[in-house]
Task: structure prediction
Amino acid sequence: MPTASVLESDAGESGTALDHLLGAFLGAVPDATGIVVASESGKPIASKLPAERIQLIPATALAKLVAWAGEAVAANLQLSGMLAVTIDGPAWKVIVAPTPSHAAVVLVTLEKPSDAPRVQRALPGLLRAVDRSLGGRTTQ
Amino acid sequence: MAGIRQNRVIEVEEERSEEMRPGRISWDAPLQDALTLFLTSVSGVLAVVVADRNGLPVASAMRDKPKADLVAVSAMAVLAMEAGRSVARNLQISAASTVTVEGGTWKVVVSPTPTGLANLLVMMEGTTNLGLLKLTLPRLADAVERHLETL
Result:
């Protein structure tokens, strides 16, 4: 199973820019324990996660499926503008949010209780910045 | 004499109107009544749907006339819940309890019943009291499970 660092180095220059963005986000949101960017097809592009036995490729592929299913739920209820899907556990939450262009999906892992307003303030800027960083890059 | 009879009529009418109030329905009432009780107990909730573990809708209650394709909604919501569980499993964190789909002015919460026999979908306005929802949803989940076990 590839590790996060290998995937980051595969991503090249935009991977380095993304790496910087992810680091800045984790600095701004102390409750966030990790962050992953996945491509349009659900493959991991960049990540900053604690060094644990994480199955990154299945996690991002399924996160892409979560985002797609969330959008389908909204569309079938005639609700527009899905922003994110939050997966809640007993002591954690994972936010899965598509970027505005839908070129990527961002996963943020958080400890509970988390400072929700701080996350909500920081996340839209990160999503736009990820889009800018991937600008012109063909998503896999 | 006539005055006493008139008072008794008023009492009976009051008793009847008490019975008609949604608050008098208990969680042990039939499934549809339990859903209606939930809908009226938590302000901002627009719809509640019970889906079986295959994603098929079993029962629902809505404030307005349904405008949604419930079969598609419940199938996609159960898919989101299952995929959310798998995300958690692959991130080596404990089991996921709910999945919330969020828009600017709305939220849809998907939550399994205690044994996973069914899933509850709750569609609500963005301003809904989430604390009250989190208190009430487990009671509804228990009630739904009890009802489904008797079928």
